[in-house]
Specification:
It is a single chain. The chain is an alpha/beta fold. The chain has 2 domains: about 5-95 and about 205-425, Adenylosuccinate Synthetase, subunit A, domain 1 (Adenylosuccinate Synthetase, Chain A, domain 1, 3-Layer(aba) Sandwich), CATH 3.40.440; about 105-200, Adenylosuccinate Synthetase, subunit A, domain 2, CATH 1.10.300.10. The protein has 13 helices and 20 strands. It has helices spanning about 15-25, 75-90, 110-120, 135-140, 150, 155-175, 185-200, 205-215, 245-250, 285-295, 315-325, 360-365, 395-405; strands spanning about 5-10, 30, 40-45, 50, 65-70, 75, 100, 105, 200-205, 220, 260-270, 270-275, 305-310, 310, 325-330, 340-350, 355, 370-375, 410-415, 420-425. Strand 19 (about 410-415) and strand 20 form a beta hairpin. Helix 3 (about 110-120) packs across helix 4 and helix 3 runs parallel beside helix 6. Bound molecules: guanosine-5'-diphosphate (GDP), 6-O-phosphoryl inosine monophosphate and magnesium ion (MG).
């Protein structure tokens, strides 16, 4: 029963979209299991760029089924505009190619309003959220006042839930956040329109996936964000509100742990992060700026410049263990062309002591120094490489060293944004 999970090993934007699109050739079904439209996954096929926020990155392969699992939080307006755009381009021709879990929670206008207002009030201490209402929606899910698609589809259940919840949210918006109250009728009629259009896709995706696995179909599980943004294991509180690590693939789909066959980690050849929070190898100098420009490191969802720094092996080793990654897909190696020296952080130093594992304490994180080893760079462009032998010796040595310091083999190396700009070393399903 082959189910392969793809997880970001750093702070998101590692290139999961490109890798999932590429791996979809070996899969029958592609599933998102957590997060929402805080994600921005970029696919470049035949020079055409597609940015997906909610629909799984397998959608550009005709005939493959895309599933939005129960662990995802869904903004109906965003999903509908994504469906419309893809349909116009000739994808998702049949309704049966997209399935939305009847247990997935719906993002409501008050979730977005609360997210944005709280960030504004936090000022300098803000998390730097995407403002899409992700955190408040997961809060309501855990507080057991969320609205799931199954509830949304039934007008009486939906109206009752909205009435009850809106009273509480409006009181909070007005008195605590100094925002305007939201209007029941406006939300109710807006969401009625969404319901009519989304109903054909809503189904029991857990049972669907169980049956598919029983019939030996190949399921690819697409993580959003990255391990360091996991609400339990990341740089709390500067994290997202879901379990981004591989365990989330089980809770977010209903697939049992024993049915996962492999976990593949996606790693950028350096490190980036959007939003606030600790980032031990961050470079705020010209080198960081060169990484940002050469890597076009601007957010796919919010357009914000990404913070950039050298590869952090402490972070990736931690991700390998947390997720049980058996292989890594290395992306954006081409961006490192032109650097005289490339650095790898292998440990940290804090108060005169070596730190090998990622600390929980933010004051420790803010006070530590990365321990680097230096590797010679290369000047040749890499975009044309299709096998490891095509890479300059120094680039090959860098890849080998990353395998050593992360204690994990590479199963692919990406040398450009395009689907074909890839050195594929192993089929993740085999
Ligand atoms: P995701 O959120 O993990 O799917 O990653 P994003 O799409 O947010 O950001 C990754 C960016 O890098 C996108 O613009 C991709 O098109 C691009 N990209 C992916 N792989 C490569 C690569 O190997 N080289 C280069 N230069 N760009 C890449
Ligand atoms: P993909 O799937 C990078 C970050 C935000 C912020 C924190 C919390 O494209 O890799 P949220 O809106 O989730 O409450 O914001 O998490 N963040 C991401 N950073 N890539 C993402 O997704 C992200 N999704 C959320 O910038 O720091
Ligand atoms: Mg992204």
């Amino acid at each position: 029963m082959p189910a392969v999970v793809v997880v970001g090993a750093q702070w998101g934007d590692e290139g999961k979209g490109k890798v999932v699109d590429l791996f979809t050739q070996h899969a029958d079904i592609v599933v998102r299991y957590q997060g929402g439209n805080n994600a921005g996954h970029t696919l470049v096929v035949d020079g055409h760029k597609t940015v997906l926020h909610l629909i799984p990155s397998g959608v550009l392969h005709p005939g493959k089924v895309c599933v939005i699992g129960n662990g995802v939080v869904v903004d109906p307006a965003v999903l509908l505009s994504e469906i419309d755009e893809l349909r116009q381009r000739g994808f998702l021709r049949e309704d049966s190619l997209l399935k939305i879990s009847d247990r997935a929670n719906v993002i409501m206008p008050y979730h977005r309003a609360i997210d944005v207002a709280r960030e504004r009030l936090r000022g300098e201490g803000r998390i730097g959220t995407t403002g899409r209402g992700i955190g408040p929606t997961y809060e309501d899910k855990m507080a057991r006042i969320g609205i799931r698609f199954a509830d949304f589809l039934d007008d009486t259940t939906f109206s009752d839930a909205l009435q009850r919840t809106l009273k509480e949210k409006n009181a909070y918006l007005r008195s605590m956040l100094k925002e305007k109250a939201l209007d029941f009728d406006a939300i109710h009629s807006e969401y009625r329109g969404y319901r009519a259009r989304l109903a054909p896709y809503v189904t029991d995706t857990t049972t669907y996936l169980h049956n598919a696995l029983r019939q030996s179909q190949r399921v690819l599980l697409e993580g959003a964000q990255g391990t360091m943004l996991d609400v339990d294991h990341g740089t709390y509180p500067f994290v997202t509100s879901s379990n981004t690590a591989a365990g989330g693939a089980c809770t977010g789909t209903g697939i049992a742990p024993r049915d996962l066959s492999a976990v593949i980690g996606i790693v950028k050849a350096y490190t980036t992060r959007v939003g606030s929070g600790p980032f031990p190898t961050e470079l705020t100098d010209a080198v960081g700026e060169k990484l940002r420009q050469d890597g076009d490191e601007f957010g796919a969802t919010t357009g914000r410049p990404r913070r950039c720094g050298w590869f952090d092996a402490v972070v990736v080793r931690n991700a390998v263990r947390l997720n049980g990654m058996s292989g890594l897909a290395l992306t954006k190696l081409d961006v490192l062309t032109g650097f005289e020296t490339i650095r790898i952080c292998t440990a940290y130093e804090f108060a005169g002591r070596r730190v090998q594992d990622f600390p929980a304490s933010n004051s420790v994180l803010n006070g530590l120094t990365p321990v680097y080893e230096d590797w010679p760079g290369w000047h040749e462009p890499l975009q044309g490489a299709r096998s490891l032998a095509d890479l300059p010796a120094n680039a090959r040595a860098y890849v080998r060293r990353l395998e050593e310091v992360t204690e994990t083999p590479m199963i692919m190396v990406s040398v450009g944004a395009g689907r074909n700009q890839t050195i594929l070393l192993r089929n993740p399903f085999e």
